[in-house]
Amino acid sequence: MTERDPLPSWRPGATRDAVLDFLDAAAEIPLAQRVAVFDNDGTLWCEKPRYTQLEFFLAELADEAARRPELRGVPEYRALLSGDSVAVAELGLERIAMALVDLCTGLEPEQFDARVQRWFSAAIHPDFGVSYGRTVYQPMLELIAALRSMQFGVYLVSGGGTEFVRAISRDLYGVEPEGVVGSMVTYRVTVVDGRPHLVRANTVVGDVNEGEAKVANIQMALGRRPVFAAGNSHGDAMMLDYALAAEGPSTAMLIDHDDGEREYAYESKAGSFESTEPVTVLAERSGWTVVSMRDDWSRIFPDGR
Amino acid sequence: MTERDPLPSWRPGATRDAVLDFLDAAAEIPLAQRVAVFDNDGTLWCEKPRYTQLEFFLAELADEAARRPELRGVPEYRALLSGDSVAVAELGLERIAMALVDLCTGLEPEQFDARVQRWFSAAIHPDFGVSYGRTVYQPMLELIAALRSMQFGVYLVSGGGTEFVRAISRDLYGVEPEGVVGSMVTYRVTVVDGRPHLVRANTVVGDVNEGEAKVANIQMALGRRPVFAAGNSHGDAMMLDYALAAEGPSTAMLIDHDDGEREYAYESKAGSFESTEPVTVLAERSGWTVVSMRDDWSRIFPDGR
User: In what order do the strands lie in the sheet with A251-256?
Assistant: First the structure.
């Protein structure tokens, strides 16, 4: 009897072999050190034409602005609602992002979760015509399952909002809320009728979860060093190097978006982090395993494309 | 065939009945909401005559001071090393605590873990003559196992240092590092020979994990609301109220240290949080289940006492 292929959507070749070699070698890694971390946007699911989280917040903004026209007086909201990309650029990503986060200030965690769930149940990806939950990468789901079959703990380390990712992490990836490491809003406690309630504040904890912050936050949130890390941008570089430098067998994996037919061929591979170098060049120099979406994957999405 | 008693160290009575009733009722709680949180010091293990973590840091200080006599020039260290309790009080808990945390600045997580492990393997509790790992409360280990048999996720929410508790949480309680919520040091990344290293910085994230901070940190770290919480002091009150106010079956449990024979009868039950009221009085008013260590537990420690 032959064993079932754990990676049916991975084409035969050097990349697939490298993954299978790591899975074999993992048998010698102590159980407590079998830790795998995955970036989310562009690594486990599609991040184009816009981040899924941004689509959610823009839908929230449209809803809120319909109820509260005075929001149009806020420069960040006005720029977004009118599609004024020059104004958006002038205000800067950080101000724009914090203004969007602030839309949900005062919500309890369960209320925020419910809003994300509601949006998710209806929203459709503009290019693929499917729910955003169907824009996950089938080969990566197979890899997660294969790692779990080797008793890896699987965690998400996203630049996106922790609470946003938590709202979908169990359904899409089987990752519990405590396994999500992201950019985290703060909460404050209010006591109403003698009962404590938690409400979202309009600040975030520390830095956005990119670059060095990913490495520090992995330790702070998970307390263990990964021996496997996957990402797709310069913002993941430090995390990939950190995993690769672990003692014993380790692997760092870069997803290269080079499939303009089935997904997107990224024009700039430099990502949001400043760099003059394509991330694939950095990958080669750093010893990361580069996954060509075009060449290494026989299909990209669960629905067959 | 009768089922095995899940709580053999709990004496028959109203407290035990309340615990068993909650375990029965838990069957109707959705799986994802079966979350139980436990304070550690004084709730799962002994916290007298001094916090275990403090004993560790004082041993570290003695070691370091032997190697680096100049540490005696630091007021906080001089006061501690000379046992000058007046000076310690004047400097204040926060300065003393931060000075002790600072002893480990620059260590990598694995190095700090190794130091805690080494200390743990040799240190002996001054009153009970056993390893600190044997000062856990046997009835609480049974409760944790009973909750897990009902598919609860079990987490630690400690005022102590997250990394200190993580060093012992798997062995003592079967809690993985990511399940420990405590007072967290920050890390910074240094790159040596092209490889990222994480080193402890001398600051902590936000507030010490007591009171309202416990509730906010539960959400930030775990992303779920507990329906069961156990504690033993005013610093746990907000967390207990938060769990008890959850929808559906919920329980808040207060451990009352009233056993001067087998453990300690606390003179002040007000804990470290300011309060003029014994925490047991607050418990009655709040609807928490009060566990009398003297009356409700047939034994306290695993070794039989």
Answer: A180-183, A153-161, A35-38, A228-231, A251-256, A289-292
Record: contact B196-A238, CB cut-off 8 A: yes
Q: Is residue A31 part of a domain?
A: yes
Structural domain harbouring B223: 14-49+131-296
CB contact B219 to A (< 8 Å): yes
Supply the mean pLDDT for chain A. 94
Beta-bridged to residue A256, according to DSSP, are: A292
With beta carbons less than 8 A apart as the criterion, state whether B179 and B157 touch: no
CB contact under 8 A, B215 and A198: yes
Interface mutation vs chain B, best among A34, A107, A187, most B CBs within 10 Å: A187
Q: Is residue A33 part of a domain?
A: yes
CATH number, residue A185:
3.40.50.1000
Residues in chain B with CB shorter than 8 Å from the CB of A32 are 170
B109 and B194 together in one domain: no
* Two tokens, residue A170: 């169990």
Give contacts of A215 with chain B, Cβ < 8 Å: 187, 189, 196, 198
What's residue A1's pLDDT?
A: 45
Chain A neighbors of B237, CB-CB under 8 A:
none
Q: pLDDT at position B305, please?
A: 78
Q: Which helix (H) or strand (E) holds B179?
A: none
Distance CA(B48)–CA(B6), nearest Å, equals: 28
Question: What are A16-61's pLDDT values in tens digits?
Answer: 999 999 999 999 999 999 999 999 999 999 999 999 999 999 999 9
User: Model confidence over B4-16: pLDDT tens digits?
Assistant: 899 999 999 999 9
ipTM of the complex: 0.94
Is residue A110 within 8 angstroms of chain B, CB to CB?
yes
Nearest CA in chain A to B177: A223
Above 70 in pLDDT, residue A269? no
Residue B188: band (very low, low, confident or very high) from pLDDT cuts 50, 70, 90:
very high
What pLDDT does B1 receive?
45
For B46, the 3-state DSSP assignment is: coil
Residues A109, A244 within the same domain: no
Partner residue opposite A216 with nearest CB, options B110, B166, B198: B198
Taking the C-alpha atoms of residue A122 and residue A101, their distance in angstroms, rounded to an integer, is 21
Same domain, B282 and B148: yes
Cβ contact B196–A242 (<8 Å): yes
Q: Which residues of B touch A246 (CB under 8 A)?
A: none
